[in-house]
Amino acid sequence: MTTAHLAAGLAAGDPLPFLAAGWILLAGLHGLVTSRHAVHAVGCLTVVQSSTYVLLLAVGYRRGGTAPYFTDIPPGTPVADPVAHALTLTDVVVGAAVNALLLALVLQTAKRHGTADPDALTGLKG
Asked: What H or E segment, with its residue span, contains residue 44?
């Protein structure tokens, strides 16, 4: 891939953003599987979720596209997909809420059991 190709933007059907999303997903999953601390696991889950941001933005991207404000552009002008961008924004907000909840649960677990190591936690006692 040349620098002129990079400067011109991504071509339609370019696999680079999808490969990047897959690599980010695999890196996060690797960290999640090998994690020995609950806070680290929550961080790795955040990395996994960030791969969905890249994927959604890649799906909504249009080369040479403009923002989807239809009041002052001529018909037939390529625009970026607003639904994909709205889903990405929703994904960010939901991800922040999920991370806050998970970190609160980790904090309460560490207070109650004295550790945040998932392997050291025993089963629920009734």
From this structure: helix 38-60
pTM comes to 0.76
Does residue 57 contact residue 92 with C-beta atoms inside 8 Å? no
Phi, psi of 26 (to 5 degrees): -65, -40
- Give the per-residue pLDDT at 117: 84
Backbone conformation region of residue 13, classed left if phi is above 0, alpha if psi is from -120 to 50, else beta: left
Dist CA 93 CA 100 (whole Å): 11
CA dist 25 and 2 (Å) reads 26
Q: What is d(CA 39, CA 31) in angstroms, rounded to the nearest whole number?
A: 11
